[in-house]
Amino acid sequence: MFNKKSEYAQNKREKDSIIYISVNGRIRLTRADFSSEEEFLRWKQWSDEDYYEMERQGRGYYDNGVPLDENISEAGAVESAEDVYFRELMADEIEAARKALCQERIANVKALLTTRQYRRIWMYLAEGKSITEIARAEGLSKASVSNSIAAALRKLRKLR
Q: Is pTM beyond 0.70 here?
């Protein structure tokens, strides 16, 4: 992770000046501020080496860490143990609530219909049997099974 706003980066970027950031702000010393070219080059070299050493010492934290910013990829993100635990807990609670709701609805349907109507509706809707198959299995006429299922469906519409 390289900080482009650091003193080192700004000093390196500006070849014809020495950048120094003080409490009053950014100070820029140019070649004209020195008495000779040699003196400027000597101080520029010293400044670059000093800033390089400071930058190198401060980079240990960034070189051995991962930045947690908006650019982090999903592949690098690890789900926490707490998230896994609470997700499974919520899934269990949702499943239990769904089962309780189903049991309550089935109990309401059983209370509303006779046992014969419930059995015939179950074979017709849940098992997908035709009216002919249900009539054959119960030894009845198709008309009586059809009337029984139609009456059961009318009762179920009232349940809504």
A: no
